[in-house]
Amino acid sequence: MIMPNDDWEKWSVFVLKELERLNDCYEESRKELTRIGNEITTLKTEMKIKGGIWGAIGAMVPICVGLLIYLARSV
Predict the structure, then answer these.
(1) What is the distance in angstroms between the CA of the first residue and the CA of the last residue of the chain?
(2) How far, in Å, CA of 53 to CA of 27, rounded?
(3) Given 6, 19, 31, 67, which is the most exposed site by the fewest CB atoms within 10 A?
(4) pLDDT tens sequence for the chain (75 residues)
């Protein structure tokens, strides 16, 4: 944007418009960062749930194998 250098009134209008533009950019960035932060929180929660499920499945495998071996020996 070209800066006027005629008088203070034009300059003050320019400065105010530029501050408004910068504030709008700041607000858009803040909203975007908040949205991204919420998505990250959601992903972390989903990953913890999936990790718990896979951990439970992983723990069940040796238990089932042990039970099968126990049953095979007792028959």
Answers:
(1) 88
(2) 39
(3) 6
(4) 565 556 888 889 999 999 999 999 999 999 999 999 999 999 999 999 999 999 999 999 999 999 999 999 988
